[in-house]
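Module 6 notes. Inverse folding takes a fixed backbone as the condition and produces residue identities as the prediction. Think of it as a translation problem where the source language is geometry and the target language is the twenty amino acids. Below is one complete input and output pair. Work through it position by position during the lab.
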């Protein structure tokens, strides 16, 4: 087997996803078989630079690096985000089952939950919110949370799911807007209004987009 440059093992929660270039049949119990086009979730380095520890579906084992990593191989940079954007719940579940972190960020600093709520994909958002340790109120590079996205796009069911999961309705974006201030419809605004009136834990929560004058 030809040697490739060493492939760094992903950090915990930073699973790399590739689409296999060729079919491969395992030659030992420690290896994993797969077909051309299968999604290969690389979870760790192997015994040397020629092998990677990976998962595919319900199977796991060592795979030859040059079958899944290389110049002509398609790498899915943010598979969980892509699944959430499209509302593809099967792909999303596959990512979760293969340990792709639900709190990973894309180039905009957004989580998969943000994009699920942006698109109004309620079932996808509900699935993400069932994953332990998910961050519900993460802010992206423009200061928006999943609650901002759901409010602005007018998806009250997503707003309800987020609030039930403990999302903070008092976080402001870079424009210093609360989710309720950009709510698209009356139902969404009413949900946020009720949540803010009932919310005491977050009433004095610090916010990186507030100035000191806001507390005078």
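Target side of the pair, the amino acids:
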């Amino acid at each position: 087997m030809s040697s490739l440059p060493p492939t760094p093992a992903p950090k915990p929660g930073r699973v790399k996803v590739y689409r296999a270039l060729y079919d491969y049949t395992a030659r030992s119990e420690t290896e994993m078989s797969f077909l051309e086009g299968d999604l290969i979730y690389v979870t760790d380095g192997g015994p040397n630079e020629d092998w990677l520890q990976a998962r595919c579906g319900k199977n796991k084992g060592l795979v030859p690096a040059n079958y899944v990593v290389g110049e002509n191989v398609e790498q899915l940079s943010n598979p969980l985000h892509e699944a959430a954007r499209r509302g593809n719940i099967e792909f999303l579940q596959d990512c979760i089952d293969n340990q792709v972190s639900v709190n990973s960020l894309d180039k905009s600093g957004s989580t998969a939950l943000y994009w699920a709520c942006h698109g109004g994909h309620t079932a996808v958002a509900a699935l993400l919110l069932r994953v332990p340790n998910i961050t519900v109120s993460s802010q992206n590079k423009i200061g928006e949370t999943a609650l901002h996205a759901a409010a602005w796009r007018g998806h009250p069911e997503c707003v309800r799911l987020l609030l039930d999961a403990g999302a903070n309705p008092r976080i402001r974006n870079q424009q210093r807007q609360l989710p309720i201030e950009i709510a698209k419809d009356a139902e969404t605004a009413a949900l946020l209004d009720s949540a803010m009136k009932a919310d005491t834990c977050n009433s004095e929560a610090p916010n990186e987009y507030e100035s000191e004058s806001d507390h005078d």
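Reference fact for the lab report: The first helix runs from residue 65 to 68.
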